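Sequence only, no structure available. Ideas?
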Amino acid sequence: MRITTPSRLHFGLIDFNGNLGRIDGGSGVAISNPRNVLTIKPGNKFLVNCPNDTSTAPEGIEKIARGICDKLGKPLPDIEITIEEEIPAHAGFGSKTQMSLALAYAICKEYDLPYNGIEGLARLVGRGGTSGIGVRAFDKGGFILDCGHSFGEGKEKSSCLPSSASKARPAPQVMRCDIPEDWRFVLVMPVGDEGSHGKSEVDIFQSSFPINEAEIGRVCRIVLMQLVPGILEKDIVTFGGAISKIQEIGFKNIEVKMKSPLVPNMLSIMNHAGSYGSGMSSFGPTVYGLTNSNKKALEIQNAVSDYLSDLDIKHQCWIAEPNNQGMWAKKLTAERHIISPIPVPEELI
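Reply:
I predicted one. Tokens follow.
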């Protein structure tokens, strides 16, 4: 079996205040590249091959798989996993969520275990506790909006934590729709500059909370009255403008300022080069610009690349198409396995 997952761009958390009894909420899109590509074959023992220059060592993959098997009450299966392509870690693409879900899917298939769709897989790997964008991107791709978690004593969440430290279930999905196929995301990733993760990410969440209620209100208005109608009406000007505005307010503004002046400068260059909107995905350092022209995408890419080259900053640039399908798992028939809503025994979760 070969499993291919998308990656995701996270536009930003919506409610970083919680005084309405709810917290988190977010929006984002699934993109085609970078991606994970894993080949799984029968073997004599559990073995991980990383023939390319991947960011996760074989022992990292085994650790994730062992955690999944421990929850299932199963030993590591006798399979050989080859990592053909891998999403860069700590770069703003939600790499661990995609890899964890892919491994959970493969292990459940190997043991012929029932599961209840993407919700079951997410609970099995403990992802999506703050933002559900990566989990939903794995499932069906597209543009995704979720409405966060109940907040307060006795609720789903009683403190402000990132997904890596939260045990909440993935947030309910408010909407999911296809991204226009001609839209392009120009991606620029400075090499060697990781986004915050682990304890530093937890510290940033807790020290920044809560954000002023009026600012949260502005974020909500931009999401509801610009971002959502922009994607529904395929209005790239309105949609891109909303993305740019989100960078300037709420928790996303805190994330962007942490990368100042490099990230703000890259976003400004993208917009001046013709991007309809630009932003930093999650904690970065990857930035993205939006256009609907391959020619314009190359111009935007070249403008930012020239800026980074002048500063002697090593970087990678590429142009990604939307992903409106989610993950693919192929056998000899090359058919996609649809994750169907089959009840899962509670003891397996």
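Residues 332-349 have pLDDT under 50 and may be disordered.
Hope that gets you unstuck.
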